């Protein structure tokens, strides 16, 4: 499946999750990522997540994420193997919510951070 089709799948999933989320304001982390998946529709599993860009001043930048980093785990969901649905629940949070992320730099160094969902800038 092409990257653009993956982005459409993630967008549809985010809309589904946003419609079922509680009444809080939807948070923002400030990353652009490329996803590789396998499987069928909502049963799709993440194979990899690579950070393409991190917005200046974003929660992701403050936590230390950088372009080129690969995400290895979102909360208790390992990548590869995490379902798209489970990963989406981990990343679509309200402002102030915390998500734990384990990642690997291009040089192989692994690290773990806590991302606090912020407000999207105007």
UniProtKB/TrEMBL annotation:
Keyword terms of this UniProt record: Signal
Q: PDZ domain location, by residue?
A: 30-106
Q: Give the matching InterPro entries.
A: PDZ (IPR001478), PDZ_6 (IPR041489), PDZ_sf (IPR036034)
- From what superkingdom does this record's organism come? Bacteria
Tell me if Signal is a UniProt keyword of this record. yes
The record, for Pfam families, names: PDZ_6 (PF17820)
Q: Any idea what this protein is called? A: PDZ domain-containing protein
Q: What is the lineage of its organism?
A: Bacteria, Pseudomonadati, Pseudomonadota, Gammaproteobacteria, Nevskiales
């Amino acid at each position: 499946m092409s990257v653009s089709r993956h982005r459409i799948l993630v967008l549809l999933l985010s809309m589904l999750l946003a419609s079922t989320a509680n009444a809080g304001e939807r948070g923002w982390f400030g990353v652009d990522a490329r996803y590789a998946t396998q499987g069928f529709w909502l049963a799709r599993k993440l194979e990899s997540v690579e950070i393409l860009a991190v917005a200046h001043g974003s929660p992701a930048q403050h936590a230390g994420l950088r372009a080129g980093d690969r995400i290895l785990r979102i909360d208790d969901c390992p990548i590869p193997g995490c379902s798209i649905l489970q990963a989406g629940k981990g990343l679509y949070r309200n402002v102030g919510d915390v998500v734990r992320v384990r990642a690997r730099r291009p040089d192989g160094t692994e690290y773990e951070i806590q991302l606090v969902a912020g407000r999207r800038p105007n």
